[in-house]
Amino acid sequence: MKLISINIAKAQDLQTLDGQTVASGIRKQAVSGTQEVGPMGLIGDEQADLSVHGGLSKALYAYPQEHYAFWQTVRGQAKAAGWEQPLRQGAMGENLTITGLLEKDVWIGDLLRFPDCELLVSEPRFPCFKFNSVMGFNKAVKLMSESAWCGFYLAVKKPGSITAGEYFELRPGPREVNITELFRAKARRG
Predict the structure, then answer these.
(1) Measuring CA to CA, how many Å separate 93 from each of 109, 115, 132?
(2) pLDDT tens digits, one per residue of 116-126
(3) Could you give the number of structural domains in the chain?
(4) Which among 23, 118, 139, 146 is placed 20 to 30 Å from 73, CA to CA?
(5) Which of 41, 57, 166 is nearest to 121 (CA)?
(6) Reported pTM
(7) Taking Cα atoms as reference points, which of 100, 90, 110 lies closest to residue 3?
(8) CATH number at residue 180
């Protein structure tokens, strides 16, 4: 399992598909070098709506790079603005673009152990209307809900530093519910 990219953003105005302007930190950009991770996440990263993003239990958001080809394809089918350009790391709004670890293999309470930092899996990400806006078409939230390719939030168990390109290990937690199961159960209720 490998950390491909570390992505941060400042909260800024986002134009929604219906023409509204809202504050959002979803437009993450890759940063280079070693990045500091504190109890609330990456130093320099912001979230606009702290009622649904951020905080101690959702300090970081990880997303598998394996799903990027799917999103590139559906953006092309929808002829979303910029669809012909490859999606950049952080395009899903994630802080950590990872490879080798999918939602179906991640359980609440699992530990991602980096050389100088430990992150605890806390819950799946549930997309909102802002995800449609950054993907450029109205069905993005629906597709994420149907696929359960949602990524997952992480709490910081041991602050430290991380660097893109480094490997991490997964230490199993209690193994009571995995990310995919919890996402689908909550999506059915919502």
Answers:
(1) 22, 24, 12
(2) 999 999 999 99
(3) 1
(4) 23
(5) 57
(6) 0.96
(7) 100
(8) 2.40.33.20
